[in-house]
UniProtKB/TrEMBL annotation, chain A:
The J domain, residue ranges: 3-77
Protein's name in the database: Co-chaperone protein HscB homolog
Chain's role: Co-chaperone involved in the maturation of iron-sulfur cluster-containing proteins. Seems to help targeting proteins to be folded toward HscA.
One Pfam family of this chain: HSCB_C
Alphabetized NCBIfam families for the sequence: hscB (TIGR00714), PRK03578.1 (NF002935)
The keyword Chaperone appears for this protein: yes
Gene Ontology molecular function terms on file: ATPase activator activity; protein-folding chaperone binding
Family classification: Belongs to the HscB family.
GO biological process: [2Fe-2S] cluster assembly; protein complex oligomerization; protein folding
Lineage: Bacteria, Pseudomonadati, Pseudomonadota, Betaproteobacteria, Rhodocyclales
Species whose genome carries this gene: Candidatus Dactylopiibacterium carminicum
Automatic annotation (TrEMBL), chain B:
One Pfam family this sequence matches: HSP70
InterPro entries (alphabetical): ATPase_NBD (IPR043129), Heat_shock_70_CS (IPR018181), HSP70_C_sf (IPR029048), HSP70_peptide-bd_sf (IPR029047), Hsp_70_fam (IPR013126), ISC_FeS_clus_asmbl_HscA (IPR010236)
Organism of this sequence: Candidatus Dactylopiibacterium carminicum
Keywords on record: ATP-binding, Chaperone, Nucleotide-binding
Family recorded in the similarity comment: Belongs to the heat shock protein 70 family.
Purpose: Chaperone involved in the maturation of iron-sulfur cluster-containing proteins. Has a low intrinsic ATPase activity which is markedly stimulated by HscB.
Gene: hscA
Name of the protein: Chaperone protein HscA homolog
PANTHER family linked: HEAT SHOCK PROTEIN 70KDA
PROSITE patterns linked to this entry: HSP70_1, HSP70_2, HSP70_3
GO-annotated molecular function: ATP binding; ATP hydrolysis activity; ATP-dependent protein folding chaperone; unfolded protein binding
GO process terms (BP): iron-sulfur cluster assembly
């Protein structure tokens, strides 16, 4: 399967220019989207669907800061296994439990849930900066892997908060 | 703007070479067909000058059908055999059908599959009923365009699930239409609206049709229509307002049970009153009684609002969900476009206005806008793109797709609002020693429990070699194509043994059933069917030969001398075959040439992408 960065002619780095990524994605889709081949023979339509599928997956992966980091770690031979929690510091595991408790306690308090959401988002931003440093400058893969695991947990927690807020709204 | 400068696989043809294609709005209440002629989209009328075809089919004892206005006119005389709102039954089992539809027709359970309607001409599937409507529209198009239609874009509610989409595609196949694409109705409306206004920004489309509700948020920027989120309710529409009003009128007038024919007359009267109330404060309804005669009941606009406000409110919850999914607030929306006849009701408009804090756009004819958008898209898909028409459409899947896990829980594989086409793979393992088969249950929906989601298909992966529990690695791959249709494959990874998978659609028709229906449609004209098959294959062969020749001219450099020679031989072979009357042989020749061009097509695609990205970079300098 074609590598995502080269599909979009982008340098294989964690730091990415979102506008350039989006331009490249649109240029590729303009070439390969099945709508461009609806009147063409079956073989071409099939190839178009495969390429458009690849372009969508590549764009989705590279656009997301977390997915992009996981992809780079996999490319560099250090894939993150979400099933395994090893490598997480006890301090983070502790904090993880505290956050969970706060979210459970705030279950029906929209203001408090939104505050937690903002707090998580702020912490995540700091960690994403560390992640960029670990991947692009220090080439410290174990460190990057640990950050990714933490961020995956935080993203999941943030999604739970969003779901809880959505339920409150309804 | 790089998009406008790209060269295309099939360059714009000269006007006389225009390939004719149509857009069809297959609606719950009304259907329309439109096309683009002389660069302008227009709805095509029938011989009497009507562009709207009521989606009503009457079955006669001899197997013939009457479709449209004539069928609508006699529905109260022959209610059991005159089918309206069949779209509500598409891709649905008997247990899914709501009470009003159950009361109206003699519905049959077809062994757990898609419901059947018992008519004087025998049981009919909703797919066959829809095919009758599509066939009339195809004939109408051929009468004004000639019979060389390349194909059709058929619109479906954005919130239609896989079974409903597949049923629509099957109906088109039965009606003899080549489906270029299934297009989501709000997206079609956005195309018609957005291209008309040439405006960039974020738009919301509120589409309340006869039987379905869709809400989509689209971003239109630099020639790309991108659906950001979609949501809806595939069982909410103008019909429900009619049912509520009919029920109320009946209770007011007598409350005594009506026979089938009178209750259909009542429903028609309720619809008339509903429509009249959009422009009058009070309307007098003539409500049929159980015995002969009618009773007059005065209906005030406020009565109707009170009766149906809950339905309007029901539409607002999907609106909020889509905005949340898109990460937007109401202030981010540049304009709200109203689509569908049911949006003529003032209290629907005011509810939308209140939520968004501004008046929605109602200036385009809500009945025609979907067909017009579909026609514009059909024209482009047929290869008639002209400079400046170089926009691209990126649509999404409306409902998450997943698998049933142990304990009746759903594991989501593809989340809703993912841009299509999309593919996702997930690995599973066996839970017993020596387990040789695995049942796979594909579901669609957002809920955690399988029983709350829609069952799409069940199949079994067989022939797994004996291994200890947890030893096998079974990769299940979901592929959703540009029509939003799903295909699933499963393969055991560790041994490299590929097991075969058969998909049995839960609420669809099998290929055999469709083939059987196609055949029975031609029962009295076996020759017709042969002739049509031959003509179709000849057209397909000619298209393939032309396309391959063109590709060879453009990109011969991508082939070795022997590859080039092989393709030329296959072309000559197919050319020879296509002069024979043997449609099966021509089909085999088409398959052979298609297979031979697979690699070549992939190389051409690769080259096109490389060139496009080089071009884009030059633009950025």
């Amino acid at each position: 399967m074609q590598e995502y960065y080269s599909l979009f002619s982008l340098p294989e780095r964690y730091a990415i220019d979102p506008a350039r990524l989006e331009d490249a994605y649109r240029s590729v889709q303009a070439q390969v989207h099945p709508d461009r081949f609806a009147h063409r023979p079956e073989a071409e339509r099939r190839v178009a669907m495969q390429w458009a599928t690849l372009a969508n997956e590549a764009f989705r992966t590279l656009k997301s800061p977390l997915e992009r980091a996981r992809y780079l770690l996999e490319r560099r031979g250090a894939p993150v296994d979400p099933e395994r929690n090893t490598g997480m510091s006890p301090a983070f595991l502790m904090q993880q439990m505290e956050w969970r408790e706060s979210v459970e306690e705030a279950a029906s308090d929209a203001v408090e849930l939104e505050r937690l959401h903002r707090e998580l988002a702020r912490d995540e931003r700091v960690m994403f900066d560390d992640l960029a440093q670990a991947l692009d400058e220090a080439a410290d893969l174990p460190r990057a892997g640990e950050l990714v695991q933490r961020l995956m947990f935080m993203e999941k927690l943030r999604r739970e908060i969003t779901d809880a807020l959505a339920r409150l709204e309804e | 703007m790089a998009l406008l400068q790209l060269s295309e696989p099939g360059d714009s043809p000269a006007p006389h070479e225009q390939r004719l294609a149509v857009g069809i709005d297959l609606g719950t209440t009304n259907s329309l067909v439109a096309t683009v002629r002389h660069a302008l989209p227009e709805c095509l009328p029938n011989a009497e000058g009507d562009v709207i075809l009521p989606s009503v089919v009457r079955f006669l004892r001899d197997g013939n059908t009457i479709v449209g206005r004539e069928a609508l006119a006699v529905q109260a005389q022959d209610p059991r055999n005159t089918i309206a709102s069949v779209k509500r039954l598409m891709g649905r089992g008997l247990q899914d059908v709501d009470a009003p539809m159950r009361g109206r027709y003699d519905l049959l359970d077809a062994g757990g599959g898609m419901v059947r309607i018992n008519t004087v001409a025998g049981p009919r599937s909703p797919v066959e009923v829809s095919a009758e409507i599509l066939r009339r529209l195809r004939e109408r198009a051929e009468a004004s365009l000639g019979d060389n239609l390349v194909g059709a874009v058929i619109t479906v509610p954005a919130y239609f699930d896989d079974a409903q989409r597949q049923a629509t595609k099957d109906a088109a196949r039965l009606a003899g239409l080549n489906v270029l694409r299934l297009l989501n109705e709000p997206t079609a409306a956005a195309i018609a609206y957005g291209l008309d206004e040439a405006a960039e920004g974020i738009y919301a489309v509120y589409d309340l049709g006869g039987g379905t509700f869709d809400f989509s948020v689209l971003r239109l920027a630099r020639g790309v229509f991108e659906v950001m989120a979609t949501s809806g309710d595939s069982a909410l529409g103008g019909d429900d307002f009619d049912d509520a009003l009919a029920d109320w009128l009946h209770r007011k007038a007598s409350g005594v049970d009506l026979d089938c024919s009178r209750s259909r007359a009542l429903l028609a009267e309720a619809r008339r009153v509903k429509e009249a109330l959009s422009s009058a404060p009070v309307v007098t309804a003539r409500v049929p009684l159980a015995a002969d005669g009618v009773r007059e009941v005065e209906v005030h606009a406020q009565d109707f609002v009170t009766l149906t406000q809950a339905l309007v409110d029901r539409s607002l919850s999907p609106v909020k969900k889509a905005l949340r999914d898109a990460g937007l607030g109401v202030d981010d929306i540049q304009a709200v476009v109203m689509v569908g006849g049911a949006t003529r009701m003032p209290h629907v408009r005011s509810a939308v206005a209140k939520l968004f804090g501004r008046q929605p756009h109602t200036d385009i004819d809500p009945d025609k806008v979907v067909a017009i958008g579909a026609a514009i898209q059909a024209n482009v898909l047929a290869g008639n793109r002209r400079p400046g028409e170089d926009w691209l459409l990126l649509d999404v899947i409306p409902l998450s797709l997943g698998l049933e896990m142990m304990g009746g829980l759903t594991e989501k594989i593809i989340p809703r609002n993912s841009t299509i086409p999309i593919a996702k793979a997930q690995d599973f393992t066996t839970y017993k020693d020596g387990q040789s088969a695995m049942a796979i249950h594909v579901v669609q929906g957002e809920r955690e429990l399988v029983q709350d989601c829609r069952s799409l298909a069940r199949f079994e992966l067989r022939g797994i070699p004996p291994m200890p529990a947890g030893g096998a690695r079974i990769r299940v791959t979901f592929q959703v194509d540009a029509d939003g249709l799903l295909s699933v494959t499963a393969r055991e990874q560790t041994t490299g043994v590929e097991s075969h998978v058969t998909v049995k659609p839960s609420y669809g028709l099998s290929d055999d059933e469709v083939a059987q229906m196609l055949k029975s449609g031609f029962e009295h004209a076996e020759d017709d069917m042969q002739a049509r098959a031959l003509r179709e294959q000849q057209v397909e062969a000619r298209r393939l030969i032309e396309a391959t020749r063109q590709a060879l001219t453009e990109d011969a450099s991508l082939l070795s001398a022997s590859e080039h020679a092989t393709l030329l031989t296959e072309i000559e072979h197919l050319e020879a075959l296509s002069t024979t009357p043997d449609h099966l042989a021509i089909k085999a020749g088409i398959d052979a040439l298609s297979a031979a061009t697979g690699d070549f097509a992939a190389r051409r695609m690769d080259k096109a992408i490389r060139e496009a990205l080089t071009g884009a970079r030059v633009d950025n300098l």
